[in-house]
């Protein structure tokens, strides 16, 4: 029966099998129900759904791991999973903090220090709905709860479209800004829009980050380049197919010259 239902449930049979081959890094964005008019409803996970996903992971014998653990994973017999959140949405603090504590999971939030306490202007610019971002006090609450922070660049610009000086400020400048502001080491980076190239990757390494996360699909082993970590959207198989159809439809409607083109993003 579980096998029959696996395409429509999170952590179905295929997902569990994939997770034994390497460490899965789950890519979350917003913990809330999709609001009317959102450009991408698949970036939202409702609070109830998030709770059920953590419960499913826990019941299946999975536990959370820091991103650094992906660097030493030859397989994933220990059933470790990494939970990441992109952008620093305030709804993550509001709706994810207690479920994470209840199920004994830890996570990392990739922040955009140039927009702390403001709104997701990079989404609004392409017609999406506004969302509040965590402010300094909320980030401190996140850290006090035992979670980590990483950088999602200074202002969430597409690194492929920047000159070297601009890209260095987005990458290295954001690391310094977060470390100075919060007094913690920031060793992990996440490419905005999942967009990167060799030049951006090299700047991430030059800045001293231990890892960098992409949106390329898959799990991570010792053979995965540390600045090209793969991630998985926390969706069922059928939801992933629906997401692909949704993204393809959006691309058909948008000109390829759009400044928001996400060159390296793998549509999962």
Largest sheet: 5 strands, parallel
Count of alpha/pi helices? 9
Query: What Rg is obtained from the alpha carbons, in whole angstroms?
Result: 17 Å
Shape: globular
- Count of DSSP E strands? 10
Q: In what range is the share of β-strand residues?
A: 5-15%
Low-confidence stretches: 1-9, 256-268
Distance from N terminus to C terminus (CA atoms, Å) equals 25 Å
Mean of pLDDT: 87
Element string (H = helix, E = strand) = HHEEEHEEHEHHEHEHEEH
Helix content: 25-40%
| Class derived from helix and strand content | alpha/beta
From the 3D coordinates, which CATH architecture would you assign?
Alpha-Beta Barrel
Quote the CATH topology. Answer: TIM Barrel
What does this entry look like structurally?
- With 268 residues, this protein is an alpha/beta fold.
- It has a single domain (2-253), classed as Glycoside hydrolase/deacetylase (TIM Barrel).
- Helices cover 36% and strands 15% of the residues.
- It is built from nine helices and ten strands.
- The chain has helices spanning 2-5, 13-19, 47-59, 90-102, 121-124, 136-144, 164-182, 198-207, 237-253, and strands at residues 25-28, 30-31, 44-45, 63-64, 80-87, 107-111, 148-151, 188-190, 211-217, 229-231.
- Strands 1, 4, 5, 6 and 7 form a five-stranded parallel sheet that branches.
- α3 runs parallel beside α4 (90-102) and α7 packs parallel to α8 (198-207).
- The longest helix is centred in the middle third of the chain and has 19 residues, at 164-182.
- The model is unreliable at 1-9 and 256-268 (pLDDT under 50).
């Amino acid at each position: 029966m579980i096998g029959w239902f696996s395409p429509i449930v999170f952590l179905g049979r295929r997902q569990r099998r994939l997770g034994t081959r390497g460490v899965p890094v789950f890519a979350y964005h917003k913990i809330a129900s999709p609001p009317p008019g959102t450009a991408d409803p698949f970036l939202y996970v409702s609070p109830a759904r998030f709770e059920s996903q953590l419960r499913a992971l826990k019941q299946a014998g999975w536990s959370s791991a820091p991103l650094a653990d992906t660097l030493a994973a030859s397989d994933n017999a220990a059933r470790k999973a990494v939970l990441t959140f992109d952008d620093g949405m305030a709804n993550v603090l509001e709706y994810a903090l207690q479920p994470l504590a209840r199920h004994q999971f830890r996570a990392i939030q990739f922040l955009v220090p140039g927009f702390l306490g403001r709104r997701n202007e990079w989404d609004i610019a392409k017609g999406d709905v506004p969302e509040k971002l965590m402010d300094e006090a909320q980030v401190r609450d996140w850290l006090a709860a035992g979670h980590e922070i990483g950088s999602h660049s200074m202002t969430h610009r597409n690194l492929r479209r920047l000159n070297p000086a601009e890209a260095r400020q987005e990458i290295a400048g954001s690391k310094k800004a977060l470390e100075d502001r919060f007094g913690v080491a920031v060793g992990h980076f996440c490419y905005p829009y999942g967009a990167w190239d060799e030049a951006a990757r090299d700047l991430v390494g030059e800045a001293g980050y231990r890892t960098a996360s992409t949106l390329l699909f898959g799990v991570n082993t010792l053979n995965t380049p540390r600045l090209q970590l793969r991630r998985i959207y926390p969706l069922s198989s059928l939801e992933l197919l629906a997401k692909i159809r949704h993204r393809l439809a959006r691309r058909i409607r948008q000109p390829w010259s759009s400044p928001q083109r996400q060159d390296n993003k793998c549509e999962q």
